[in-house]
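Design request, tokens follow.
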């Protein structure tokens, strides 16, 4: 049975390479996509309180993919979890496909933002966390996934500097570090978040148990950042 034929079992992590393999065409940004695969799977499989039937539920968690310039892994995980049909995947990037080279929240079920321009996701996530708090919605958590190269953008540092003192406890950021940043951070990426009052951890971005433990670590009164280190982009 092929990956696109009717199945009697749910899609799992081991199916993701085959699902990604259905997406062909130019501008795939392969390293950007594969660097996020394990983080996305652990989040959607074990952490995020979301689902295909909850895309408009005010109580859902919000996941904002800022690293949207390589969305193949994101689309594969959304397909595996039933947000989008698997038969959409082969059309990735084509003129009439809803699955563009950057995700479009209007076209892709489950996508909270249109993304791919560097430095947008974390500021939007800060605003989302503030908005939920203002509405008295204390249960939803806000997650955003950014790349280490996005920390070259000043908008992220403004968001980091604001969120810590604001005590945005429901805000979570995952930085996928594939050594793409142009500028080194004194003390490393974690130190940048900690200096602004965040809880922060560094883990192996391919170790599912380590990722899960870091994602679920308690951080009362503070936003939480997880730096997920993966192989360098040039490797």
């Amino acid at each position: 049975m092929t990956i696109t034929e009717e199945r009697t079992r749910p899609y799992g992590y081991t199916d993701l390479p085959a699902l990604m393999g259905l997406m062909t065409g130019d501008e795939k940004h392969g390293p950007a996509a594969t660097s996020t695969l394990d983080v996305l799977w652990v989040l959607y499989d074990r952490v995020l309180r979301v689902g295909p039937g909850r895309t408009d539920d005010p109580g859902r968690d919000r996941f904002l993919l800022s690293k949207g310039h390589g969305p193949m892994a994101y689309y594969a995980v959304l397909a595996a979890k039933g947000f989008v049909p698997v038969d959409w995947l082969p059309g990735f990037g084509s003129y009439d496909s809803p699955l563009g080279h950057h995700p479009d929240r209007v076209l892709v079920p489950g996508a909270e933002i249109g993304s791919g321009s560097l430095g947008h996701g974390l500021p939007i996530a800060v605003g989302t966390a503030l908005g939920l708090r203002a509405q008295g919605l204390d249960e939803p958590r806000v997650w955003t996934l950014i790349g280490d190269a996005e920390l070259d953008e000043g908008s992220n540092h403004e968001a980091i500097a604001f969120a810590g003192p604001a005590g945005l406890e429901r805000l979570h950021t995952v930085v996928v570090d594939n050594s793409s940043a142009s500028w080194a951070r004194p003390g490393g990426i974690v130190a940048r978040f900690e200096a602004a009052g965040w809880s922060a951890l560094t883990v192996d971005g391919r170790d599912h148990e380590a990722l899960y433990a870091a994602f679920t670590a308690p951080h009362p009164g503070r936003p939480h950042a997880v730096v997920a280190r993966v192989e360098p982009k040039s490797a």
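Comment from the thread starter after seeing the answer: thanks! The first strand starts at residue 62 and ends at 65.
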